[in-house]
Amino acid sequence: WAMCRALPGDVRVLALPSGAAAWKDFWMDDIEMFRRVFLCFDNDRAGKQATDKVLRKVGWAKGHTLKVPGLYNDAREAIEAGWAPQLPSM
Tell me, what's the pLDDT at 80? Predict the structure, then answer.
């Protein structure tokens, strides 16, 4: 939820209910309509594996990553410490 407050404008944020391993392929139905999808998983092993898995599902042309700074485990920690995630212009 920290990403909702940190990102500018009309950005929809979807969160996995039980962490990175919870991905279900039918959730692609919820994100198919978007031109770009940004993934921001935790900096742990499960998060890195989920990034690779979901990026393949979304597609390399549509999927992009927002990387949490290496000192932090997740976006919430990084945002609380002052990280301001930026969506790249495309």
Answer: 95
For 46, residues 6+ apart whose C-beta sits below 8 A from its C-beta are 19, 20, 21
| Residue 8, CA distances (Å) to 21, 50, 58, 64, 75 in order | 28, 25, 23, 17, 15
User: φ, ψ for residue 63 (rounded to 5)?
Assistant: -90, 140
- CA 73, CA 39: separation in Å to the nearest integer? 15
Top pLDDT among 20 and 32 is at: 32
- Contact call for residues 42 and 20 (beta carbons, < 8 A): yes
pTM of the model: 0.82
The predicted model gives 12-25 an average pLDDT of 80
Residue type, 50: A
Q: Is 33 exposed, middle or buried (0-12, 13-18, 19+ CB in 10 A)?
A: exposed
Structure tokens at 34: 């978007």
